[in-house]
Amino acid sequence: MMHPNGIKKTNIKMINYGNRGMALEEDINLSNEFYRLNDIAIIHKKPTPITITKVDYPSRLEAVIKEAYFKTPSTTDYNGIYKGRYIDFEAKETRCKNFPLANIHIHQLNHLRQIEKHNGIAFIIVRFSKLDETFVLIAYDLFNYLDNNTKKSIPYSYFKEKGFLLKNTFNPRLDYLKVIDKIYFGGNNEKRV
Asked: Is residue 180 part of a domain?
């Protein structure tokens, strides 16, 4: 772009990767609030464990964290209780046509395996943002894929085949517990146990 005085100016597009998945997270948080307010379930976003090492105190009410580090790797994003069962899941958003396994850490997968092993309800929620489609993939199907494939991503087609598409609604925004009801509480059990 040329300005009137002949100076060439280039627009630089800044990409902020810090808020990837925030639209999905917001939808889940609103759904969880709906579940809590309507006494359906208690499910919370887990805080990321950090240790604060340096704080600037300009005044008592305006403390600013200047330096911190992650204490331990966090497990998954959400946990709680639903119909007397422990529930634990990870939420991921991708712009790719398949779900890159690099998006989920090995310690998170190990955590989900342990939850499933101890009869908890474990799953991932994945949003394909370019398609505006969000799926629940229960741990059983997630690990069935991982244990039988060496690919670096899970194909979108696998989510279409084994996952459960979540429709956006008003309240709750993403009714993922409808899927959990179907799988674990007397609904159609064809995809689980």
From this structure: yes
The answer to whether the bond into 172 is cis (omega within 30° of 0) is yes
Looking up residue 148, the CATH number of its domain turns out to be 3.40.1350.10
Of the candidates 82, 129, 79, 80, which has an alpha carbon nearest to the alpha carbon of residue 108? 79
Of the chain, the percentage scoring pLDDT greater than 90 comes to 64
Q: Which domain holds residue 161?
A: 19-46+73-184
Q: How many domains does the chain have?
A: 1
User: Is there a domain that residue 5 lies in?
Assistant: no
**Which are the contacts of 151, defined by CB distance < 8 A and separation ≥ 6?**
101
> Does residue 165 form part of some domain?
yes
DSSP, collapsed to helix, strand or coil, labels residue 165 as: strand
Threshold 0.85, pTM exceeds: no
Does any domain span residue 33?
yes
According to DSSP, the β-strands at 85-94 and 121-128 are parallel
To 10 degrees, what angle do helices 106-117 and 139-148 make?
Answer: 120
pLDDT digits (tens, 9 = 90+) for 58-98: 777 787 777 766 555 667 889 999 999 999 999 999 999 99
